[in-house]
Amino acid sequence: MLPRLRQVVLAAHDLDAVTARIEDKLGIRDPFRDPGLAHFGLHNAVYAVGDTFLEVVSPIQPETAAGRYLQRRAGDCGYMVMFEVESEEQVRNALDVMSVRTMHDMRYDDIVDLHLHPKDIPGAIVAVDITNPVGSWRWGGPRWEGAIPDHAPGGIVGLTVAAVDPHTVATRWAGVLGLDLTDDVDTVVLALPSGQRIDIVETTDPGSEGIIGATIDGALHEPTSIGGVRFTPGQPPEAQQA
Fold first, then answer.
1. What pLDDT is attached to residue 238?
2. C-alpha to C-alpha distance for 226 and 235, rounded to whole angstroms
3. Angle 55-92-211 (CA atoms, 0-180°, nearest 5)?
4. How far apart are CA 73 and CA 69, in angstroms?
5. Are 50 and 5 in contact (CB under 8 A)?
6. Burial of 107 (0-12, 13-18, 19+ CB in 10 A)
7. Spatial CA neighbour of 177 closest among 114, 111, 108
8. pLDDT in tens, 133-143
9. What are phi and psi of 5, to 5 degrees?
10. Contact criterion met (CB below 8 Å) for 25 and 17
11. Is 120:175 a contact under the CB 8 Å cutoff?
12. Which candidate among 17, 72, 113, 220 keeps its CA 20 to 30 Å from the CA of 101?
């Protein structure tokens, strides 16, 4: 069921150090490394976590967008979140109504990828994608291009984002995704019955706005910090299958 959170991106000064910690703490291996990111002055590693993805990007040249974000956040940090949505027409209409600009607008046979302007959608860098078929995910690597391969259970089921004005951020994110907020709480609930959720919490420091936490089902057994983000365990695999 859509919309869904499909990918969380960390920005790091040292790619190898953060990927080593991911593999140690989450027990996942064999990331996809996208050679096309060199064009943007970056290198990366993308790990499948169930049918969701955890990516790390790191600058390999000066004056990159990720490098500037690292400077603003004063170190490794959560950088970007990518959502899968059902209808290109619906999301483009929402962006028009909300006067949200796009920074990137890319189209392939199997995916449309829209990166939204952070001045219009604050809190983190946000992307929305429309896939063909639903559930495929080109950014996860060749096995996921236009296909849904066999994968492990579990996945990223929650995100915590710090913002100076949580209600505005929650309202803007929900509007882009075609969702309503949960009561008066600044929480955006996504795909049910899995219950993915985005919790927006208050910070008084504009420099600390961004992704600060993530919840993972299945691949994590105790809370840990990776790349400036606090990861907490959700349900173990046996509970998901019960």
1. 46
2. 19
3. 30
4. 6
5. no
6. exposed
7. 114
8. 999 999 999 99
9. -75, 120
10. no
11. no
12. 72
DSSP letter assigned to residue 139: G
Region at 178 (left for phi over 0; alpha for psi -120 to 50; beta for the rest): left
Convert 154-174 to b/e letters by CB count within 10 Å (16 or more is b): bbbbbbbbbbbbbeebbbbbb
Supply 35's token pair: 């050679």
Strands (E), the chain: 4-11, 42-49, 52-59, 77-84, 102-107, 111-116, 125-131, 155-163, 187-189, 197-202, 210-217, 224-226, 229-233
| Cα 90-95-101 angle, rounded to 5 deg | 145
pLDDT, residue 241, reads: 42
Question: In CATH, what is the architecture of 4-241?
Answer: Roll (3.10)
Q: Is the pLDDT of residue 184 over 80?
A: no
* Torsion sign (Cα): 99, 106, 104, 168: positive
Q: Check residue 237 and give its pLDDT.
A: 46
Six token digits for residue 141: 């690597």
Average pLDDT, the chain: 92
Cα 122–chain centre separation: 14
The pTM (predicted TM-score) of the whole model is 0.94
